[in-house]
Amino acid sequence: MAWYENFFDDWYLKYWIQPITQQRTNNEVDAIIDYLKINNDSNILDLCCGQGRHSLELARRGFKNVNGLDLSETLLGFSKESAKKENLAINFIQGDMRDIPASLYDGIFNFYTAFGYFEKDEENQAVLDAVGRALKPGGYFLLDYPLLEGRMGPWQNQEFFEYEDGTVMLHEMIHNVFDQEIVNKVLYITKDNLRHRTGFTLRHYYGRELRKCLRKAGMEVVATFGSLEGNPLTARDRRVLIQARKIAEPDSSK
């Protein structure tokens, strides 16, 4: 079984995303609205929507055509229940990010390191190809992605986090420099000594590779930013925000 089929479970929902504040989500949604150039009537796709924090906030702000796609039944169940409680009309879809349901979106975004999940490059390319097919001509794609250049200097192999209920999370990050792969091993230990092991693996892409992959999918990189506020990208930044636009049909020869 692939790691992404069982990593996003009840443990993830209870602990992994716990440190994410509503203020962070608000700031991210501000950037999504700005860089996707969308309005309240735009058809929007939250690709790998997870627990739905961005989709929910967009709907709260009056966006009428919000769609969220994710593979995890657990996270989608939480998203749907949250939308129901707030009486928000959001179309949540269970599906694989390599196979976006036929539609034409004004804007698509992929946040919180939800790209590079697959071992084979052609499978990761299939994600961008699906985005390219699903976007209207001139539509924008926004990708929030880790920047290794800014992480290598202060690279941490391990981190430790203790939650309010006494549960401890140990996170080990193993960076395979040659293969550009980051293996993450996670161990949760509750105060009752219940242990849960999980983890995930990411194929990391550098900027030149991503530009080529986006171009192959019929998109061009319009801008890159080192922050949500639009600061110029530097080698010190730990994440990159990539704004791309659909300009053509995919060109498999490139």
Shape: globular
Quick one: how many beta strands?
Answer: 11
Q: What share of the residues lie within helices? A: 25-40%
Strand order of the largest sheet: 3-2-1-4-5-11-10
- Structural category is alpha/beta
Whole-number tally of structural domains: 2
Radius of gyration: 18 Å
The CATH first-level class of the largest domain comes to: Alpha Beta
Short note summarizing the structure:
This protein is α/β, with parallel strands linked by helices. The chain contains 7 helices and 11 strands.
Description:
The chain is built from 7 helices and 11 strands. With 254 residues, it is an alpha/beta fold. The chain folds into 2 domains: 3-146 and 206-246, Rossmann fold; 151-202, N-terminal domain of TfIIb, CATH 2.20.25. Strands 3-2-1-4-5-11-10 form a 7-stranded mixed β-sheet, with helices on both faces. Helix 2 packs across helix 3. The longest helix has 15 residues, at 22-36. It is globular and about 55 Å long. The two termini are 32 Å apart. The model has no long low-confidence stretch (mean pLDDT 94).
Give the SSE layout:
Elements (H helix, E strand, L loop, with lengths): L9 H7 L5 H15 L6 E5 L5 H8 L4 E6 L2 H13 L5 E4 L10 E6 L10 H14 E12 L1 H5 L5 E5 L5 E9 L4 E9 L5 E9 L3 H10 L2 E7 L13 E8 L8
Parallel strand pairs: 1-2, 1-4, 2-3, 4-5
Antiparallel strand pairs: 5-11, 6-7, 7-8, 8-9, 10-11
Helix pairs in contact: 2-3
